[in-house]
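sorry for the late reply, my laptop died twice this morning and i had to redo everyting from scratch. anyway the thing you sent over, i finally got around to it. pasting the sequence first so we're on the same page, its 220 residues, then the predicted structure underneath. double check i copied it right bc i was rushing
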Amino acid sequence: MNCLKNDPIGAGLGLCGYAIYATTKKITDTINKDARLTKRFIRDNWNNLLAGILASIIVLTSNGILYGFQAVALPLTIGLGIGSGVGGIIGVLTSKIFDPDRDHDGKTTAWDLLNNNLIERLDANGMRPVMLSISITVLLAASVIYPYALGGICGFLVGNQVVTKIGQGRDLGPNSKNIEIQLRNFKSQAIKIQEQIIKLQIKIDALQRAVSPTHPDDPS
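ok and here's the structure:
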C-alpha cells in the first residue's frame, strides 16, 4: 500500500500493463483454440468442402456461359461473398455468445432450422423430391433475375453453416470417427449407470430388510 501511495504513476502503469497482458493472452488463447478447431474441421470435412467449392464453380461458370459473366456470374459471386461474410459473423456470435455450451446443438444455423423444420418433414419418396426439383428450378430462374439477392441468400446459408460448425466443433455431415467415439462414450456411460443402479438396488434391499421385521413363514 505504501508503494502505491509513494509511486501512483508506477502503480497505474503496472495495472495497465497487467490488463494489456491479460487481454492479449485471452485473445491469443482464443485464436489458438479457433485455429485448432478450424484445422480439425478442414481435416474431417475436406471432401464436403471440396464438393461445395466444385459445385459453386460449376454453377457460376454455367450461369456465366449461358447468361453472361458480367450480368449474372459476377453479381452472384459478389452476393455469395457478402452473404458468406454476414453469415459467418452471425456464426461467430452464435458459437461464442448465443450458444457457447451447445445447448441447442443441431438447431443453431439457418440451414439446420430450414432442414429440420421443413425439408426433413417431407416424405423422402413423395413430396421431398418434388419440392427440391421445384426449388432448383426457381433458384436457377432467380439467379438470372436477382443475382445479388440469390447469391447473398446462398452465401449466408453457407457461411453461417460452416462458421457455426467450426466454432462449435461439429461436422458438416456424419463423421464415422466421431460416431465411433460417441458410441464408445455412450456405452461407457451406460455401464456406469447400470453399476450405479445395482449399487442403489443393494442399498434399497438392505434398508428394506432393516425396516421390515422378519416374519416366520406361514404354516401351509
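The chain has two domains: 52-173, 175-212.
thats about all i looked at so far, will dig more tmrw
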